[in-house]
Design goal:
It comes from Flexivirga alba. This is Exo-alpha-sialidase. The protein contains two helices and 25 strands. By secondary structure, it is mainly beta. The strands form six sheets. A five-stranded antiparallel beta sheet has the order 1-14-15-16-17, with no helix packed on it. A five-stranded antiparallel beta sheet has the order 2-7-8-9-10, with no helix packed on it. Strand 3 and strand 4 form a beta hairpin. The longest helix has 7 residues. It starts with 17 loop residues before the first helix and ends with a strand.
Length: 301
């Protein structure tokens, strides 16, 4: 689910390894409720932040398009660059609330809290074309929608454009390279995952629709129990959904209008966000993290 978004970076210049960057899925989700972020370590010193952000050992620029992670998450939005490094933004309250941005470099076992953001509600987090972490959402001051980048310990307005993004809360539309297109034939966009020139969106009606660049959207899957969607490196679409017999969240690949079960992630809550870095998946809540792949080997961090 993704927007090719401009989001927010962690306390220093963040540049992602080019190989890892290409594999990252672009993703967004639209806010439907918020919960407080889970336990984390205290804000690190500047030297430690660098280790937690994509900055270590890569070029200052990437020619890869921006990678986004979710517009408007239910309670949390996440983006990842590989099997061990990811960033999440957890919401608490409405646009006048607060957003806790955290980073992990050990597969979600521990999360480090980063610099306080100006966002009241986060609806997207991702890596831009320059390898910086970006945050999208409503500002705590005024509730206007903004995109920020975190560099050298301070957040600032981002100038990187988003290639794909939901048009906003309660909207059936997406924005692609500055142009508005209808994605949901009913209801509103609640999640978006980008793979190449196509965006897959999850609508509030439970419809999953493919939106090609410059083309008409079409429904490719329908489930009233769908919670989030993600796309793998090979553009396979994965849906996170509740299912009878699964005490948690079921993950399934979608093809030909039907879903094939991958696994049941036991104990996972409904307030989760799904994203992929290559073929490595992250299912993240404000307090817990599960990782795995399309072969079914998912485990709690």
């Amino acid at each position: 689910m993704k927007l090719s978004l401009a989001g927010g970076v962690v306390g220093v210049l963040v540049v992602v390894n080019a190989a890892a960057f290409v594999a990252v899925e672009q993703h967004f989700q639209v806010a439907t409720g918020q919960v407080a972020a889970g336990p984390s370590s205290a804000q690190p010193a500047a030297a430690d932040v660098g280790a937690s952000s994509p900055s270590a050992n890569v070029p200052a620029k990437s020619t890869t398009p921006p990678v986004v992670a979710h517009l408007g998450a239910p309670s949390v939005v996440v983006t990842a660059v590989n099997a061990t490094r990811a960033w999440r933004a957890a919401n608490s309250g409405g646009c006048a609330g607060s957003v806790q941005v955290q980073a992990t470099k050990d597969g979600g076992v521990t999360w480090t809290t980063l610099a306080a953001s100006p966002a009241g509600t986060a609806d997207g987090i991702g890596i831009d074309g320059n390898g910086h972490l970006q945050l999208s959402g409503q500002a705590a001051n005024g509730c206007t929608h903004n995109v920020w980048t975190l560099d050298t310990g301070a957040w600032s307005a981002s100038t990187s454009p988003a290639s794909w993004a939901p048009a906003g809360a309660q909207s059936p539309d997406v924005i692609h390279n500055g142009h508005r297109a209808k994605a949901c034939d009913a209801g509103s966009v609640i999640d978006l995952a980008v793979a190449g020139d196509t965006a897959d969106v999850l609508c509030s009606t439970g419809a999953v629709r493919a939106v090609p660049a410059g083309g008409a959207a079409k429904t490719i899957y329908q489930s009233a129990d769908a919670l989030s969607i993600g796309t793998t490196k090979d553009n396979s679409l994965v849906v996170a959904q509740t299912e009878e017999g699964c005490d948690g969240v079921e993950l399934a690949t979608v093809s030909g209008g039907s879903a094939k079960k991958i696994t049941c992630v036991q104990g996972a809550s409904k307030a989760v966000d799904l994203t992929f870095a290559g073929n490595h998946g992250w299912l993240v809540a404000a307090h817990n993290t599960w990782t795995g792949g399309t072969s079914g080997d998912w485990s709690k961090s």
